[in-house]
Specification:
It is built from 12 helices and 12 strands.
Length: 265
């Protein structure tokens, strides 16, 4: 899992690490090898106290978190104060919210850095990474998908979509990439399979919630009958590069890193 790999890389670089896992979201098995604490998402005061007690100055925000309702959030006193400082961004898209969270953490004296800054090899490179190579039909679908994802990102909705033979089968919203791919299994058309396209949102806060793909993404793409995955080079996290490439080769799928100058429009 990516949080564990980032923690291991930080330790290898001579840093001390402390992990705060959000109860209901964090994988306990990933946390166990490291100094850590599991905290409910609304306990902002407890989280800040733990970070200061463990002398944390730099933070890496990793992992998907479903946005809870205010009732489920049950913010503590510090949580209410932070919500007030976040303001209307709390009710905006994910990137707007994350950018506001990064700003507030900075105001609290912490420096937020991206996972790719600690784990340099996690940033996806440009070009074809797999044995399979996209053909002209796949490249046309990728171009169509990039248009759609740029439009989604412009209104801070999602980071990816699936296109098959020029038809948009699904777009990502609150359900996330995995659930979107699971939906696509029943939507596939006959003929050449579709493609998954993942891009960074225009103006996205790159220290949090960068597009991520891994072996599970490949597995679900194969189950959905897709031919390959295209992603923005330099802006996408490969959660397990070797494992992702091996899974793609075993499945016969292509992996294509898109030049950000052209992928981003």
């Amino acid at each position: 899992m990516l949080p564990g790999r980032v923690a291991a890389a930080a330790i290898a670089a001579g840093r001390r690490v402390f992990l705060v896992g959000l109860d209901g979201f964090a994988d306990r098995a990933v946390l166990e090898p490291y100094s850590h604490e599991l905290v409910r998402i609304g306990a902002a005061g407890r989280i800040l106290q733990l970070l200061r007690t463990h002398d944390c100055s730099e933070l890496v925000l990793i992992g998907p978190v479903r946005r809870p309702s205010l009732l489920d959030l049950r913010p503590d006193a510090e949580g209410f104060r932070i919500l007030a400082r976040i303001g209307r961004a709390a009710f905006a898209g994910d990137d707007g919210l994350l950018a506001a969270v990064v700003r507030v953490l900075g105001e609290e004296g912490f420096r937020v850095i991206g996972a790719h800054e600690v784990l340099a090899e996690a940033a996806a490179p440009a070009g074809v990474l797999s044995r399979a190579v996209p053909d002209a039909r796949a490249m046309a679908d990728i171009a169509r998908g990039a248009e759609v994802v740029r439009a989604l990102g412009g209104v801070d909705v999602g980071q990816c979509c699936v296109v098959q033979q020029g038809i948009v089968l699904a777009v990502e919203a609150a359900e996330g990439t995995d659930a979107m791919l699971e939906r696509c299994t029943a939507l596939a058309r006959s003929g050449p399979g579709g493609v998954l396209v993942k891009l960074v949102k225009p103006g996205q806060e790159r220290r949090a919630d960068l597009p991520t793909i891994g072996p599970d993404t490949v597995r679900l793409a194969r189950q959905a009958g897709l031919r390959g995955i295209a992603f923005e080079a330099g802006g996408t996290i490969l959660a397990d590069r070797a494992g992702t490439i091996a899974a793609a080769d075993a499945a016969g799928l292509f992996l294509l890193g898109l030049d950000p100058d052209t992928a981003g429009g």
